[in-house]
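Suppose you are handed only these lines of text.
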Amino acid sequence: MERIAFIGLGNMGGPMAANLVRAGFDVTGFDLAPAALADLVRVGGTAAASAAEAASGVEVAITMLPAGQHVRSVLTGPDGVLARVAPGALLIDCSTIDVETARAMAAAAAEQGCDMLDAPVSGGSAGAAGGTLTFMVGGTAPAFARAQGVLGAMGKTVVLAGPAGAGQAAKLCNNLILGITMLGVSEAFALADKLGLPAQALFDISSKSSGQCWSLTSYCPVPGPVPASPANRDYQAGFAAALMLKDLTLAVEAAAAAGAAGVLGRPAQQAYARLCAMGLGGKDFSVAAQTLLAGPIDG
Ligand code: NAD
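From them, the structure of the protein bound to nicotinamide-adenine-dinucleotide can be written out as follows.
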């Protein structure tokens, strides 16, 4: 049974680690929050007293942490994971972080003779619990092949995007599209409302017209047309506006660093920042529609 260290057992990491246990892996976890560790033990995993202890001698170490600085310190900080894993181990970072840190971590792993993949996910906490996540992977083809069993136990779709950092690049570009299209769809519903066009009529027409997109047809931000969307449950659960703000901030920073042209990324980032400043950061990001229907959010 392959031994796996899992560092970061939060909303995403907790259920992902539980799925690895269910798939028969020997999982030792670490998290700063004792309750998260207790959850892992409850499903059959082992709790470690530190990231270094969890990683001691393992063949595979997975991280699912808030941001780049956490990944950097857990992997390469004093008594970091990289110094503790078995020779030639495979490291997989599933956190959403900046491309530059992802590439730096892959280089640090290579220096130690280890493989490293950046493998951010899409699918949210429901996908993590159900084992249906999509993994967007950056790294070498042999490391990707080596990770299939582990990633397959936590997700349904596993895609190699390219070399180190490409998984994070794919995640940031995808969420740039998502954050912008959600604001566009929300703005259209606010305009329809002012023009006296019922939301259902706009949905029926645009979902079959050139305005069609996932933010409209699968995740409609107003209640009614798509019964499963968060709009029908007061924007609870789903993908938090604060996380969308995080991802758009990473996207606009990456665009600035790479010299990529942009029109809508920064204004979209600012719109989600305002939603968070209004105390809505914990709500699903489609709460933008409710806010726009109530009035401008650019004040
Ligand atoms: P979370 O805050 O619920 O979990 C992060 C966990 O990391 C916490 O339990 C925290 O205690 C732990 N942690 C922080 N620093 C640590 C350290 N030094 N050592 C050990 N543990 C440490 O966040 P989450 O929602 O699970 O998200 C994790 C990552 O996944 C983020 O990068 C996020 O952007 C990404 N993501 C989240 C979602 C989502 O819907 N929640 C979807 C896709 C991607």
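What can we learn from it? The chain has a mean pLDDT of 96. The chain is about 50% helix and 15% strand.
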